[in-house]
Amino acid sequence: METKANVDNETPSIHSEHVKEEFYKWFESRGLLSDLRAYMRQLMVKALEESNKNGKTVRPSKGATSPKLQAINLLMVDYLFHEDYLYTVSVFASEAQILDSLPQYSSYVTQTVRERRLEPSSLPRFSQQETEDILDTLRLPPTRQAARQATQLYLSGHESLFTCVVRTLTSSGLDQDVAMRGAEVDQEVLSVGCSHQLWSQEMENLLLLAGVKLQHIRRMQHKWAQLIEEERMIVRQEEEAQRMEWERDIEQRVRVEVMEQLRERQRVRVEVMEQLRERQ
């Protein structure tokens, strides 16, 4: 009797473990684990927030966040969404307490669990006013050309606002370098390298201040370097195309001027010959 009872007690446990294992394999094979973790974490955060509203203190609230840090957090959330780092978003958003002001992003996590992949156009996006406010807080007011270009690039495309800002600032910096070609090449390259290095260090400090893990910052820095190199290649190709077009224009102008001079000489020669004939 005891043996039978023990077998009966063990059978459900074995069956339960088997079911858990099968469920885990099923979610893993379909790439849903990170989305499920993000969704469950979001539900936990909401439950904790509700309990806090009912008078139960979950944890001491953080001090007021500066507008600059809030703008950086918004950039990070938007970037992580576009890179499909949903689990990282759920962790970051719960610690930064930022999704309350972005209901469209919060609902996107729930929707993504039901519908695994969405088209890029279906991703949540900032409005034009929100985009300008974020950039203005980061000392990129709408009056600056870089801010206008970044806003236009973001609203007309499918990339994250952070990526658009990096592309725009990189392109603007390279345009300024091209305009200052009169300076020595070595000094110019050194100045550009120092500017990018300082900018990268400042961004790293801001991200660390925002609570982003170092490993994620390193990934983003690697992607920044790729984006910068891509933009440099594009600018170099455009410069080469412009140079070739300029050379063709110069060659054409010189050819036209030479032909006009030859025609003028021929006309003068004909006039001289006619005058000589008349005298004879």
From TrEMBL:
Domain of life from the UniProt record:
Eukaryota
What InterPro entries does the entry give? LisH
Identify this protein by name. Uncharacterized protein
Top-level taxonomy: Eukaryota, Metazoa, Ecdysozoa, Arthropoda, Hexapoda
